[in-house]
Amino acid sequence: MQESLVSAYLGYCVLRTANPLGVVGRTMLAPPRQISQLHKPEDFRLRVRTRVTEHLSLAGIPLRVEGVPFMQQEGAVTRCAHVAAWMAHYVGVLRGLIPRVPVAHLYAASSTSKSLFQRQFPSPGLTENQLVDSLMTAGLPPEVQVVQSLEVTDRQAWYHRPGLRHKRAVAWHREAFTTTICRYLNSGLPVLLAQGDHVEVLCGYLRDSHLSHASSQAPTGEVASLISCDDQEGPYVLRSVDALLRDTTSDSLLITPLPGGLNLAGNDAEYLGATFIEAGLENVLETVRENRLERLGALVNPVQADLRKRRFAVRSYAIEGNAFKKSFAHRCVDDRSAVAVVSASRLPKYVWAVEVVDRRLRTEEDLSSSGGPVVATAVLDGTAARLDQVNLLLLHVPGAISVRDTIAGYEALFECDALSYDSGRWAHSLPPHSDIDPRLSKTCGVYR
After folding, report:
1. Using the 8-state DSSP alphabet, how is residue 83 labeled?
2. What HEC string does 234-290 produce?
3. CB 106, CB 86: distance < 8 Å
4. What is the pTM of this model?
5. Can you give the pLDDT at residue 199?
6. Across 287-296, average pLDDT
7. Engineered SS bond to 297: which of 95, 181, 251, 288, CB 3.0-4.6 Å?
């Protein structure tokens, strides 16, 4: 009886029976198991990048549910912005990043803001400054970006899709919009999208190759839909990227709640990481030529050639330094030195990992294909407060790994056997039922 209950458990929902307009209170439901729009409906759970695990009990029976926190506004005290802030906050709580704060505290923080001079009950909603106040009270100081001002740093970079090269500005803006969101979702951090007078929480994404209707044309690999928790429509709602951009106004914002200490912005981390990777390949090849390392040259030369032919993409995500070490040890098969070098390296609390991804293998990564799609990884200091303080801490390319110790002041290059492996982004391989509470082990169940 107990085992069948544990395996069948899908989550919980607290109902506000006295409020017919905002019935759904604190809720945690597993993602739907069947989504008709997908080629593989059963894989929808994998596309929800910010899912976390909550442990609870029913009549003394220990249970767990994996999903994204959800709540509906009740209209008098909490509005969509309040519940969106709470959803992002509770994700951070269940990941062990921040202590828990009651939703009432989020309301109190916004009501004391001087940015709005009017009655706070019933709540008229939140201004941008008040929402920022609430998120800071929740322990997640946010990064705020105007949607219409997003732009690609370098339109000729090696990691941009070849089909974008001759596209109009609207296509590049779409690319900047999706990549900005996805790098934080890959970090396990939800993104708040504020459009007009409404705020929703983005928690996952789908590429055109994942959607069933994409079979009529060759998929490009671009992000086609975002997964949203909208208090007006429910959790796990599919939003077309094109439709969202059509609704964009001059005051539309992306608000990303970040844990304290993660100072380096995602856009800057990806650009610097890609630059370090390109330069790092040149440095490795120079070492190969000087020392006549034929074996290493045979591994690195094809990677540099594919990079110049724009066959690679980059995937960026923020992660705790110790979690990255455990992740790399789980994902990387190495009998020489790569895992040992990473394990012994000194990393700050937060780092940005920038992965070089083989586009041809990316669509097969969920099939556990041998090797995985990641062929190189750069690790940057995520705690740097200024761009000129950002250091490249680790760089892995096929057959070699370099490490920089900023405390001891040395750099070293080691040969290794590691070639390619799976991505280390948050929740990439999170199993449906983890036996360890993630609040006790932040890296539990994240990696293969």
Report:
1. H
2. EEEEEEEHHHHHHCCCCCCEEEEECCCCCCCCHHHHHHHHHHHHHHHHHHHHHHHHH
3. yes
4. 0.87
5. 92
6. 83
7. 288
